[in-house]
Specification:
The chain has 813 residues and is α+β, with helices and mostly antiparallel strands. It has 28 helices and 10 strands. It is a peripheral membrane protein. Its main location: membrane.
């Protein structure tokens, strides 16, 4: 109810005015209680909603785990992945709703209570004070005696001044009351209207999301009906088979022969036998025996490695054993030992003896098979790494993700249908999409396209940089290379079915990719580029060896620094390191790690990093130049896609990498001629953070190692690439893995005196141990840990020069 007080009544200070004030003050006090209660309820609702989002996210992760578990069932995996993606979108929408609720209800009403009601209370206090002073002045003026002229004059002056002050403050108080009564209506309605609009946006987004999912759910329902019918049919067939086998078990003893002749798998016979042990007690144990690959083997459990009884059946004989008390025994005798076995029946014993004798005869006929198989092994393909042109840094400071990505050529319109102002993106393809095409991409599965919003989602700096390195024009030159030749027209906005068919043909079936040519330089030019790359690598390796000799010489003692000096070279000051390690250190074993940190070398331009002069890695990179020459003279038009991806990863050539993936390259392809190095390892050697991110987004295994046991994290640590180390740790790299020398990345970083990498590895390890001790599996970890890694990611992507200190400091020596 709106309470207003008349200004004229205020000047009269009548009982009617006092009654109106009392009514208004009571109403305002009740209003304050109601608003405080509403704000508290809003806070409780937001907290409960956040807890719901956390629980919902855990449930969604459970669905994704179930989808990964069902990888052998394409229907279940695709459906669960699609549903989990939709639930993730709904979680994002819920989060936005709670943020807007906090701004509209909690913040706005709290501000009204704290600001406007506080002004009302202050005005009330002043009014009450001046009212009391006025009453005192009136009483004093009335009590003064008539014959005391001086006191009469003084009382009259005080009363006049007090009345004047009372009228002024009373008018201000009435003004504050009327303003408050008028403003509270607008504030309450404004906050509630904003709250309702937030709900409207939330339900509209949910409706749009599930409208896109509706046709798929309808098709899945029809498919499920067919599956139910098929399951009932299979159940009837299984029951018939069960009945048939059950009748066979009771009618004949022939089924008890537990052997299976399967020449395709190399298993001649298999089944249970009792084996007499060679110990003093001569105990008998039941084991699963099999004759395979001209050997007699047995195992206790299926997962156990088979134990070989006879390595070569050509050198053994088999005979009956009737001179022991146990029945159905036979003996397999080899030049070095004999094995006493017992079958369950006479028929089984005869079958085993016949199987062994047949295998002995077969082994003589197949004497030369093993050597022939070795001769037929194909040699692995060779490859070389060409040095590529560096990509341009197109990130503009102060702009949003949408503005940065849309300024890339071709990104102002949808990559597939051409609709203007796209607000969605496929992060592994590096393209922008309209909302309808993004829904179709989402239905393809994350192994084909990972969809993210340019306006609603949070973008990591390396991912945003990757989007700016590719773009619609670049990717369409790859995935639509043969569209004009095939006479196919791109779908127009609004053509849903045509879009689905076109997008599936473009990205899943890859019908429009030019699979027989690669947009690369002529072979002669590639030879020159590759030779130049090899020569540069030899020079860098020779410099590396020289720096190692300098470190090993007596004069190099000035380079060796103690732990305090090393920590001063880090991006963190000593006090910060102490507080960080004490904050994360939850057990005394973490404090036992020696602080041998010192210096770092990082990238110079657009995140590409260079080899530090003090890293002891001769054993790792010394033969690199020689390996490069083996495949320099291959014609690039006949490169296999895996080798093309391998070479382009070192060259930092994202378009050529995308082309190789489109042509069917395995992102985890290993070059057997170069220590089984992968494209991700080549990207580390090339020094590009964006190249590594591109491979990881397209399914590269961050823990795949070469023949020396070194994974991408090992190589990045040896080379001093702090940005790549930070990226790999965020993407789940195993920092506990050791190479063939028994070194993990932390020990390598400590030996190389890379303070920042040591700090990252230690913080990641401490955070991991904290989460394990507290049972926080699957969660990102402490906020301090996340903030530190976020800062390193920002520097590595946008300001790599801040990390490029170690090389400059080492050159002083």
């Amino acid at each position: 109810m709106k309470m207003t007080v008349d200004f004229e009544e205020c000047l009269k200070d009548s009982p009617r005015f006092r009654a109106a004030l009392e009514e208004v003050e009571g109403d305002v006090a009740e209003l304050e209680l109601k608003l405080d209660k509403l704000v508290k309820l809003c806070i409780a609702m937001i907290d409960t909603g956040k807890a719901f989002c956390v629980a919902n996210k855990q449930f969604m992760n459970g669905i994704r785990d179930l989808a990964q578990y069902s990888s052998n069932d394409a229907v279940v995996e695709t459906s669960l992945t699609k549903f989990s993606d939709s639930l993730q979108e709904m979680i994002n929408f819920h989060t936005i709703l709670f943020d807007q609720t906090q701004r509209s209800i909690k913040a706005q009403l709290q501000n009204f209570v704290k600001e406007d009601l506080r002004k009302f209370k202050d005005a009330k206090k002043q009014f009450e004070k001046v009212s009391e002073e006025k009453e005192n002045a009136l009483v004093k003026n009335a009590q003064v005696q008539r014959n005391k002229q001086h006191e009469v004059e003084e009382a009259t002056n005080i009363l006049t001044a007090t009345r004047k002050c009372f009228r002024h403050i009373a008018l201000d108080y009435v003004l504050q009351i009327n303003v408050l009564q008028s403003k509270r209506r607008s504030e309450i309605l404004k906050s509630m209207l904003s709250f309702m609009y937030a709900h409207l946006a939330f339900f509209h987004q949910g409706y749009d999301l599930f409208s896109e999912l509706g046709p798929y759910m309808k098709d899945l329902g029809a498919q499920l009906d067919r599956l139910v019918v098929d399951a009932a049919k299979e159940k009837r067939e299984m029951e018939q088979k069960h009945s048939t086998i059950q009748q066979k078990d009771f009618s004949s003893d022939d089924s008890k022969l537990e052997y299976n002749v399967d020449a395709a798998n190399g298993i001649v016979m298999e089944g249970y036998l009792f084996k007499r042990a060679s110990n003093a007690f001569k105990t008998w144990n039941r084991r699963w025996f099999s004759i395979q690959n001209n050997q007699l083997v047995y195992q206790k459990k299926f997962k156990d490695n088979p134990t070989v009884v006879v390595e070569d059946l050509r050198l053994c004989t088999v005979k009956h054993c009737e001179d022991i008390e146990r029945r159905f025994c036979f003996e397999v005798v080899s030049p070095t030992k004999s094995c006493m076995l017992q079958a369950d029946s006479e028929k089984l014993r005869q079958a085993w003896i016949k199987a062994v004798q047949t295998s002995i005869a077969t082994a003589y006929r197949e004497k030369g098979d093993e050597s022939e198989k070795l001769d037929k092994k194909s040699s692995p393909s060779t490859g070389s790494l060409d040095s590529g042109n560096e990509s341009k840094d197109k990130l503009l400071k102060g702009e949003s993700a949408l503005q940065r990505v849309q300024c890339i050529p071709g990104n102002a319109s949808c990559c597939d249908c051409g609709l203007a102002d796209p607000r969605w993106a496929s992060i592994n393809l590096g393209i922008t999409l309209c909302i309808e095409c993004s829904g179709i991409h989402r239905s393809l599965g994350v192994h084909f396209s990972k969809v993210r919003s340019l306006t609603l989602d949070t973008w990591e700096p390396e991912l945003l940089k990757l989007m700016c390195e590719l773009g619609n024009d670049v990717m369409n030159r790859v995935y639509e290379a043969d569209v004009e030749k095939m006479g196919i027209k791109k779908p127009q906005p609004g053509q849903r079915q045509e879009k689905e068919a076109y997008i599936r043909a473009k990205y899943v079936e890859r019908k429009f990719v030019d699979k027989y040519s690669i947009s690369s330089s002529p072979p002669e030019q590639e030879k020159k580029i590759a030779s130049k790359s090899c020569e540069e690598k030899r020079l860098s390796i020779s410099k590396l060896g020289t720096s190692e000799q300098v470190r090993a010489s007596p004069q190099s003692s000035v380079v060796a620094v103690n732990s305090d000096e090393a920590r001063r070279e880090s991006l963190f000051c000593p006090d910060e390191l102490d507080s960080l390690f004490s904050y994360f250190d939850t057990s005394s074993k973490l404090r036992s790690i020696k602080s041998n940190d010192s210096g770092i070398q990082q990238s110079s331009d657009d995140g590409r990093e260079s080899l530090p002069s003090t890293v002891s890695a001769n054993s790792l990179y010394e033969p690199e130049a020689e390996r490069q020459d083996s495949s320099v003279f291959l014609d690039s038009k006949h490169l296999n896609p895996g080798l093309q991806l391998y070479r382009a990863s070192y060259e930092k050539n994202l378009p050529k990498m995308a082309e190789a993936l489109a042509r069917g390259a395995d992102v985890n392809w290993a070059n057997s001629e170069e220590n089984k190095a992968t494209p991700l390892i080549q990207a580390v050697l090339g020094g590009s953070l964006v190249t590594c991110e591109f491979l990881l987004q397209n399914g590269a295994n961050v823990n795949q190692r070469d023949v020396q046991g070194r994974g991408p994290l090992h190589h990045a640590t040896v080379l001093g690439h702090t940005g790549q180390v930070c990226l790999f740790l965020k993407r789940g790299a195993n920092q506990h893995a050791t190479d063939e020398e028994g070194k993990d990345p932390l020990s390598i970083a400590v030996e190389a005196a890379n303070a920042d990498i040591v700090t990252l590895l230690r913080l990641a390890r401490m955070n991991e141990e904290m989460r394990e001790s507290e049972g926080l599996y699957g969660q990102p970890g402490d906020e301090t840990y996340q903030d530190i890694f976020r800062d390193f990611s920002q520097m590595a992507s946008n300001n790599p020069e801040k990390l490029n200190r170690f090389q400059q400091d080492s050159q002083k020596f």
